Amino acid sequence: MKKMIKNGVIVTATDQYEADVFIEKGKIAKIGAHLDDAADEVIDAKGAFLFPGGIDPHTHLDMPFGGTVTADDFETGTIAAAFGGTTTVIDFCLTNKGEPLQGAINTWHEKSKDKAVIDYGFHLMIGEVNDDVLAEIPDVIEKEGITSFKVFMAYKNVFQADDATLFRTLLTAKEHGALVMVHAENGDVIDYLVTDALQKGHTDPIYHALTRPPEVEGEATGRAAALTGLANSQLYVVHVSCAEAANKIAEARQKGFQVWGETCPQYLLLDQNDLEKPNFEGAKYVWSPPLREKWNQDVLWDALKNGQLQTIGSDQCSFNFNGQKDLGKDDFTKIPNGGPIIEDRFSLLFSEGVKKGRISIHQFVDLVSTRSAKLFGLFPQKGTIAVGSDADIVIFDPDKERTISAETHHMNVDYSAFEGMKVTGEPVSVLSRGEFVIRDREFTGKPGSGQYIKRSRYNSTQTRQAITVQ
Ligand SMILES: NC(=O)NCCC(=O)O
Ligand SMILES: [Zn+2]
Ligand SMILES: [Zn+2]
């Protein structure tokens, strides 16, 4: 099926111009003015931007956590992602100590097979490093195309790895061309602060934030960056929430270390006061790292603008308020961490970033798509609108206004952290490899049509070239 998209304005991380896009066999076959190739279907995109499909580098779909499982799986989560303009997700595959890495990867293939409506890849958690794990890594990279490994520096006795594991993962990643990702919080200190808080009878959601102060995130970020420099390796810090962590990343980059940072819409737009909402509503806002004092938002926006943070992830990790978040009604440590963001990541950044003049439209594309494609080995197959790239395209109305609500969202969860917020700009139609997944705000995709994507190795030249896009 050949398609022609006419009259739209193509926007990439570097360019903005009006042109027609001709799609054949799922790829962008031609771009040009007034193309007259015969197409089975012509789509008029007058008045719309054509953005490359969003790439969400940080999701947790169908993930067990705290005795429960995320409300969104690969079907509901990717449908919601598509409604929000995202055409690729990279999900975190959890591993269990003592289990072969391949076993965990197989589990994640089972979770996603026949379910995903958009393309997807996996990052792989490394919980411990031993000879068996090290021996498996080359195959994981080569055969599975998994080229990013995640080390948790927090969640003591659950996911947390020690510094030796982090350091050996950095060395191995350097050797084989992979990118190491860290959840950077000092889990040991958090454990002490949490025990102390509970002993004092502090059980409300706000204590989640008070027992994970910015210092523990800054310290862990600085430690991971220092180990990266020592290993001469490469690091990606997920969900940066505060000035302390952003500053450590900037310092490391100043020294020439290959350290990259991601933040998320929740840290740009919500703050610690949300955890104090009455009737246990604060539980809806429990993320790790926690929401911070409001002034941190300006620091994060500035870091996005000046290139010190490079991507926006959703950290999609949804739990219903009723029946899941309320597991922690009497003890904040039992509130499952995370929230539903996958659907709103793209629109929130456009509305709050581009429309409010905080970032340029090219920075927007870079942050929600192109830079993740480059860092995680998907470029140029994905992350741009170019001849030869997958036809993952968002037809976006930049002026459409809407109000975010759990009543109308497509995530399988009973609340929205952004309930009532007005946003400007909406993905009207979304194509994944040339097929409509969303058409005029209706879902037209099919579970199982999303493909597992094997990714290329980390490429320092490619990522370096992309350091500043204004
Ligand atoms: N971020 C969060 O609170 N939940 C998801 C798991 C993680 O990314 O740490
Ligand atoms: Zn995390
Ligand atoms: Zn996460």
Automatic annotation (TrEMBL):
SUPFAM superfamilies: Composite domain of metallo-dependent hydrolases (SSF51338), Metallo-dependent hydrolases (SSF51556). CDD domains: D-HYD (cd01314). PANTHER family: COLLAPSIN RESPONSE MEDIATOR PROTEIN, HYDRANTOINASE/DIHYDROPYRIMIDINASE FAMILY MEMBER. Carbamylation allows a single lysine to coordinate two divalent metal cations. Keywords: Hydrolase, Metal-binding. GO terms for molecular function: hydrolase activity, acting on carbon-nitrogen (but not peptide) bonds, in cyclic amides; metal ion binding. This is Dihydropyrimidinase. Its cofactor is Zn(2+). One of its GO terms (cellular component) is cytosol. It holds the Pfam family Amidohydro_1. The keyword Disulfide bond does not apply. InterPro entries: Amidohydro-rel, Hydantoinase/dihydroPyrase, Metal-dep_hydrolase_composite, Metal_Hydrolase, Metallo-dep_Hydrolases_sf. Residues 49-437 form the Amidohydrolase-related domain. The keyword Transport does not apply. The modification N6-carboxylysine is found at K150. The lineage of its organism: Bacteria, Bacillati, Bacillota, Bacilli, Bacillales. Belongs to the metallo-dependent hydrolases superfamily. Hydantoinase/dihydropyrimidinase family.
